[in-house]
Write a structure and sequence with these properties.
The chain has 329 residues and is of the alpha/beta class. The protein has 13 helices and 12 strands. The strands form 3 sheets. Strands 7-8-6-9-5-10-11-12 form an 8-stranded mixed β-sheet, with helices on both faces. The protein has a two-stranded antiparallel ribbon with strand order 1-2. A hairpin with a 2-residue loop joins strand 1 and strand 2. Helix 1 packs across helix 13. The longest helix is centred in the C-terminal third of the chain and has 17 residues.
């Protein structure tokens, strides 16, 4: 998914907590405009919104085979930071690039399902039925979306009861991993939209996942909880899931016109220089509109700044994941 390192420079990927990005010497950046691939004039080395030189992440080549089953949890215990919006639009962008993608709605509010135009309250089967009782087959629960290559595992308020019912179960932290095991080979990427808490459901998502993306609103109170979340990720990695890595911290709802947003972003980059994605998702009125429309921004407003941002994020994520860091214990 990423270009080869230059002959004179060895690509070194440090362990968890020091995540690298694509080679900054990559060729010119590219983006999708509707159905066509176009190239922007800005190349590698341009200063990005994070205050660092912006690497260029080219459009990835098609996959010869599918089914890598890379599982990523979108996690932050604070609500309203863009988890669901990022899950929907990153998933749609990955599907545009030919990656078979499954979105897992793991929040009892069911916002991910609603954001894709599906009313979870009328569904006979949801992710709750996979966790409790075990009578449902996962193929009966997954529903297609209007985006080619993008499927959904829906949720509704019933999931709130699962957390209490799972407390007495043996191996309760691995319940979601067991439920998804049979279909991992059918998808290239599985994105899990976590609820805004650090309870048992979120621990299940972290135990199942290979990596975590932390959406972070460029606002002071959102910044305060990052250290607690990373500490939880470390504990899950040490005690339940040794393969878990931090895919990156994603700055969302960024408004470059405000001093506060710029200061918060600068502090995040200063504190986590290698973990913050170069891609920053700017605040735009298009995102609330897409929720009402029940579709991703990549189809609702394909040439908008928001759509371009999530396509860039998809390319950056694939460049980072091209050769996954070795997790050292």
């Amino acid at each position: 998914m990423t270009a080869d390192a230059s002959p004179t420079q060895t690509r070194v990927r440090p362990p968890y907590g020091r995540v690298t990005v694509g080679d900054p010497a990559l060729s010119a950046d590219g983006r999708l405009d509707g159905a066509n691939v176009v190239h922007s004039s800005g190349g590698a080395g341009e200063m990005g919104p994070t205050g660092r030189p912006l690497p260029a992440f080219p459009v990835p080549p098609p996959l010869a085979t599918h089914g890598a089953g890379w599982m990523v949890a979108m996690c932050n215990q604070k609500g309203g930071v863009g988890k669901t919006t990022s899950t929907i639009n990153l998933g749609a962008a990955l599907a545009e690039y030919g990656r078979r993608t499954l979105l897992v709605d793991f929040d009892p509010q069911g916002a991910l399902s609603v954001g894709l135009g599906i009313n979870p309250m009328v569904l006979e089967r949801t992710v709750h039925d996979l966790l409790v009782g075990g009578e449902a087959e996962i193929g009966e629960v997954i529903v297609p979306t209007q985006v080619d290559g993008l499927d959904l595992l829906p949720s509704n308020i019933d999931l709130s009861a699962a957390e209490m019912l799972l407390v007495t179960e043996v191996g309760r932290e691995h319940t979601l991993a067991r439920a998804l095991a049979s279909i991992r080979s059918e998808y290239d990427v599985i994105l899990i939209d976590c609820q805004p808490s650090l309870g048992l459901l979120t621990v299940n998502a972290l135990t199942a996942a290979d990596a975590v993306i932390v959406p972070l609103e460029c606002e002071y109170f959102a910044l305060r909880g990052v250290a607690l979340l990373l500490d939880t990720i470390d504990k899950v990695r040490d005690r339940l899931n040794p393969r878990l890595e931090l895919a990156g911290i994603l700055a969302t709802m960024y408004d470059a016109r405000t001093l506060h947003a710029r200061e918060v972003l600068a502090r995040v980059v200063e504190r986590f220089p290698d973990e913050v994605f170069h891609t920053v998702i700017s605040r735009t009125v298009r995102f609330p509109e897409t929720t009402v429309a029940g579709e991703p921004i990549t189809t609702y407003a394909p040439t908008s700044v928001g759509a371009d941002g999530y396509r860039r994020l998809a390319r950056e994520l694939m460049a980072r994941h091209g050769a996954p860091p070795v997790i050292q214990r």
